[in-house]
Amino acid sequence: MNIVVCIKQVPNTNEIKINPETGTLIRDGVPSIMNPDDKGGLEMALRLKDQYGAHVTVITMGPPQADIMLREALAMGADRAILLTDRKFAGADTLATSYALAGALKTLDYDLIIAGRQAIDGDTAQVAPEMAEHLGLPQVSYTVDLKYNNGLCTVKKETEEGYQILEVPTPCVLTVLATANKPRYMSVKGIMEAFDKEVEILTADQIDVDPARLGLKGSPTRVKKSFTKPQKSPGQVYEVDAEEAVGIIISKLKEKFII
Amino acid sequence: MDFGISKREELFLQMIREFAENEVKPLAAEVDEQERFPMETVEKMAKIGIMGIPVPVEYGGQGGTNQMYSMAVEELSRVCATTGVIVSAHTSLCINPILEYGTEEQKMKYVPKLAAGEWIGAFGLTEPNAGTDAAMQQTTAVLDGDEWVLNGTKIFITNAGYAHVYVVMAMTNKELGTKGISAFIVEKGTPGFSIGKKEKKMGIRGSATCELIFENCRIPKENLLGEQGKGFKIAMNTLNGGRIGIAAQALGIAQGALDETVKYVKERKQFGKPIGAFQNTQFQLANLDAKIQAARLLVREASYNKDMHKPYAVEAARCKLFAAETAMEVTTKAVQFHGGYGYTREYPVERMMRDAKITEIYEGTSEVQRMVIAGNLFK
Questions:
Q1: Cβ contacts of B371 within 8 Å, gap of 6 or more
Q2: Is B363 one of the catalytic residues?
Q3: ∠ Cα A224 A225 A228 (to 5°)
């Protein structure tokens, strides 16, 4: 079985600060990490590899600095790493990104494509579902568990109410939550070997795409304005039983003339 | 020497920090309080290769560098000095001499299981009457047919009881003095070999420190490590390497104590502002930070020399001396900055101060390191 996992390098938002004057993120000196949902996706793929002997390829679209994250994926146990990088991809929104990734995926062999649900820097959760549409593949989002049997994936999907168990034939696209598993650590040997392997570079010319649909040109999204949310005052916490809580909530709502 | 670190080491640091933070730190207070050997941590470390970092792949190791090994001991000790010394004694004092002086058969028999962390290693040199004056060995080994017969007692042996393989020094010819000492490999469970009393220590309390007792302990002739009569040299060279590990441990303890203190002085308010806002606090912490980084560069230099197969005995003595004394200073001041809270077990700096003291003592006291350094100055 061939599995391709889409991963993204993101700034560690736990350590990010906002410039109070400009309202923009201060990215200087903020360490980059593998996006947590993507890492969950990679771990899910590696567990399938442990169980069934799959071949795992990781792919990312990003600047050359993403090389270190691809090495991390190799050190965790991925077999092959591809960096999709080109100035032509710069400024891509989710549509242009998913289009470029789909173009790269068309050049690869896959039975299963796994991606994280969303990246912690943009939180759109759009790229993988759009990619599935570009490729004309069935998709299941919010995956927390996966069993594979003879071309059929049995997927546990998290919903707001609980879980759904779905069956989906391969090839398909799954998006995975970070909470699905506890990703393994890189092994020391894995780290040593990761730098002996090649990270393959793919540019826009090497994939199956229409150049007009790439990068800023291919991105209909326009950011009109960005601003920092004003800080709210800390809320009040009442540790009381349900009955008392109802009374407190009603009196507070009345106080604010909401009811 | 390159002061920067390679991409490979960068990734390694990322891994070991995550591991230390998530798997080791949560147990640190408990293993100290209960004086409990953290076997579950050893198993986790074994799984990802931390028990055999600088060991060649052909002997079942990870094929990493001594630099990476030092980084691992530093990062583990930053959160738990007990875990740091388990790895250091195992790697530097047991695997290393077998790799360096062992026959091909000995290496193939012992190193793969040690490097995989299936077996833990230990080293026995110190005796009740042979501490810094290590040449005063009273443990004896006498050849009887195809077997060596060992008699005597070793003390203060790290990893004792949990270790499967012990590199042990014994006198094979008393008349020859240091040239009459030989090294042996002794396995756990050998008849006549038992573990004696466990020490109750000030610090690194999760680490097992016990006596080794040999009473007519018979080991095969082929368990002589290196040439007969070369044991003292083997022990001294082994300790040169071990000192880098202990320096890395001391460095980690110092960094951990500084991290805790920086966090604390930002939160603790007195006289209407965080104590970190006082320049006295800032200047003292700046001094400690500079010393820690100096210690780190000394550790890096010694590790680099070992990796490059250059002499490193003096570099190892320097980094151990400086890192150990830095650890003691930083942890003592860390407790002071924490005030009364720092004296309680609510905060980790109290443990770190107790843990730091041993780094000035074992694998050569600070006085021994000064002897090595001065010896080089006056040679």
A1: none
A2: yes
A3: 155
Give every strand in the sheet of A80-84, ordered side by side: A163-169, A152-158, A139-149, A172-176, A112-116, A2-6, A55-61, A80-84, A199-202
Three-state secondary-structure class, residue B180: helix
Q: What is the pLDDT of residues B260-317, one digit of tens each?
A: 999 999 999 999 999 999 999 999 999 999 999 999 999 999 999 999 999 999 999 9
Half-sphere exposure at residue A1, Cβ-oriented, CA atoms within 13 angstroms: 26
Q: Looking at residue B379, what is its pLDDT?
A: 87
Residues of A in contact with B48 (CB under 8 A): 184-188
By the 8 A CB rule, do B291 and B329 touch? yes
Please tell me the distance from the alpha carbon of residue B77 to that of residue B254, in angstroms, as a whole number. Answer: 9
pLDDT tens for residues B155-164? 999 999 999 9
Q: Tokens at residue A183, please?
A: 């990703």
Residue pair B285/B277 in contact by the 8 Å Cβ criterion: no
Closest listed residue to residue B317, CA positions, set B329, B331, B332, B301:
B301
Q: Which residues pair with B124 in a beta bridge?
A: B168
Give yes or no for a cis peptide into A171 (omega within 30° of 0). Answer: yes
- Let me know: does B114 contact B50? Beta carbons within 8 Å: no
* pTM for this prediction: 0.91
The residue among B9, B12, B24, B48 with the most chain A CBs within 10 A of its CB, best to mutate, is B48
pLDDT band at B89 (very low <50, low <70, confident <90, very high): very high
The chain B residue lying nearest A31, using CA atoms, is B14
Q: Which of B12, B14, B87, B307 to mutate to test the interface with A (most CBs of A within 10 A)?
A: B14
Residues present in chain B in total = 379
For residue A71, give the nearest of A186, A178, A177 by alpha carbon. Answer: A186
Compute the half-sphere exposure of residue B189: CA atoms within 13 Å on the CB side of its CA: 4
Count of CB atoms situated within 10 Å of the CB of B242: 26
Give the pair of three-digit tokens for residue B4: 């920067």
DSSP codes of every residue in B111-165: HHHHHTTSS-EEEE--BTTBSSSTT----EEEEETTEEEEEEEEEEEETTTT-SE
